[in-house]
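Q: Given only this backbone (391 positions), what sequence would you predict?
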């Protein structure tokens, strides 16, 4: 059963790291505290359990941490392993749920006061020499607050930074979605125009052909010259219509509206993504001599791939982009996926759209997980390669 306070999905590597590091730390503390009382060992075990479950089951972490603190207060015996509370309060301080952050801050402050009252009784030797009991409690409270409240504050700062980054990502994604809608509108408008052109060409040409054919049929016996002229008109009309249809079909083969997409457009896209916190390493091979339609398909796939990397990727890792224009277009985008993405979810409509664009351009698209990374490969052969040898 999934913990209701758990955030995102954890990879097996993350789980193994949490378990191994916590058990190693717990083992070292057990050896160091081997001569202490049983309540100390119980508190150590509970803290170790809290560390193991800090990301996998935050609810269990909170319960274990509070139980350990209760044992230490009840036994008036504090374990050095309590320094690990800095890590635990860091986790709740950066939690996205406001109730968790607020409640944990209250616990941190209250716990600091309780620890400050308890510690002078835990270490009575510190009172020897006429030391003030009040000052001992004050120093104990401050020392505890540095650990627990300090850990919470560091975690909360991380939460705020993440919130700002998420807002920037959301703004960038919204801008990209707006551009996508406008592109789709332009594309639909262009296709409607092409459909109207096709109708005009076919309707006009067929009307002329039908009229001339009817006239030639009636004139072929009595006026052979008129019939011959009509057949010539039919041939000329058919040739002109065929050229017009070929032009319309050529426009239809383009998956986007006419226009140029160049290095400036890509640089602007990279600039928006870098402003949102993404690191991009872009390389290019060959000369960009592909037609405008192919370049626009590559740019659309690049935009969608970087958007997905922004939504679901690890922004601490560099996104690798490579364009190969040697024979057509081969675009490769590789990014590390995140266990805790900024925009979880997704219906895979973007991947389906990329695959459709690639297919319309005569190419293929592969978008799949490759270990800890997500890999997108767009491969569109050149026009000469698609046409093959002359027939």
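A: Predicted residues:
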């Amino acid at each position: 059963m999934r913990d209701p306070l758990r955030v995102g999905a954890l990879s097996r590597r993350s789980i193994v790291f949490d378990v191994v590091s916590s058990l190693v730390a717990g083992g070292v503390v057990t050896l160091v505290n081997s001569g202490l009382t049983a309540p100390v060992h119980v508190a150590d075990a509970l803290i170790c359990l809290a560390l193991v479950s800090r990301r996998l089951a935050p609810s269990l972490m909170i319960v274990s941490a509070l139980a350990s603190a209760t044992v230490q207060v009840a036994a008036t015996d504090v374990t050095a392993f309590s320094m690990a509370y800095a890590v635990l309060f860091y986790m709740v301080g950066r939690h996205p749920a406001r109730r968790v952050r607020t409640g944990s801050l209250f616990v941190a402050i209250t716990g600091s006061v309780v620890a400050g009252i308890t510690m002078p009784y835990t270490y009575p030797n510190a009172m020897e020499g006429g030391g003030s009991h009040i000052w001992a409690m004050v120093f104990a409270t401050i020392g505890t607050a540095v650990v627990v409240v300090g850990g919470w504050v560091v975690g909360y700062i991380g939460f705020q930074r993440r919130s700002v980054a998420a807002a920037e990502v959301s703004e960038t994604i919204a801008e990209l979605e707006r551009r996508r809608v406008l592109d789709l509108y332009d594309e639909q408008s262009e296709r409607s125009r092409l459909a109207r052109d096709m109708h005009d060409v076919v309707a006009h040409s067929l009307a002329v052909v039908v009229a001339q054919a009817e006239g030639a049929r009636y004139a072929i016996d009595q006026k052979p010259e008129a019939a011959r002229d009509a057949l010539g008109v039919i041939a000329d009309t058919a040739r002109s219509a065929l050229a017009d249809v070929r032009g319309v079909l050529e426009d239809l083969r383009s998956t986007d509206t006419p226009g140029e997409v160049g290095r400036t457009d890509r640089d602007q896209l990279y600039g928006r993504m870098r402003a949102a916190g993404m690191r991009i390493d872009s390389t290019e091979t060959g000369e960009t001599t592909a037609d405008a339609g192919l370049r626009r398909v590559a740019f659309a796939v690049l935009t969608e791939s970087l958007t997905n990397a922004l939504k679901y990727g690890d922004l601490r890792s560099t996104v690798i982009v490579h364009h190969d224009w040697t024979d057509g277009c081969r675009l490769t985008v590789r990014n590390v996926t995140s266990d805790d993405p900024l925009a979880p979810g997704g219906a895979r409509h973007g991947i389906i759209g990329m695959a459709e664009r690639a297919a319309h351009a005569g190419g293929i698209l592969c978008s799949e997980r490759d270990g800890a990374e997500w890999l997108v490969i767009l491969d569109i052969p050149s026009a000469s390669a698609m046409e093959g040898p002359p027939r």
